[in-house]
What we know:
stress response; Small_HSP; 161 residues; Immunoglobulin-like; three-stranded antiparallel beta sheet; HSP20-like_chaperone; mainly beta
Amino acid sequence: MLTSNDPFAATSAALRALDQLTGRGGTTTARPLAGMPMDAYRVGDNFVAHFDLPGVDPGSIDLQVEGTTLTISAERSVPQIENAQWQVAERPFGSYTRQLVLGRSLDTERLEASYHDGVLTVSIPVAEKAKARKITVSRADTPAQVEGRTIEGEQHQAVEG
Length: 161
């Protein structure tokens, strides 16, 4: 039999009691994952997000972009071990979904994703039109060069001083 030091003994005892009431033989059973932990940052011209998905089959990961919403779905299956007599089963399993609302300045057409060591990495480049750019200001040498131009809907005349 397996024993473990559980700092949340009261919670574990309550779960064991619930398991006994529901006919699960007194073992602690896994519960679905409550969330999909994420880190996100901008580096250079890319927005990068990392999602913890340990034990997830990469084939179950699905990413969809609709408008400015990125939806990430994945599934961690319950281990199927023949003739196993589970003593403790605390690792979470089930389906996971997380949605991110992306800024319009990101180029979702060039989104890239990879999965390594239980971490899904999503990289989205900043759209070219949203990148910072330098604007050149031309200099009018004489007031006559400005005369007659329309700026913000108003007609401006050169003022002689």
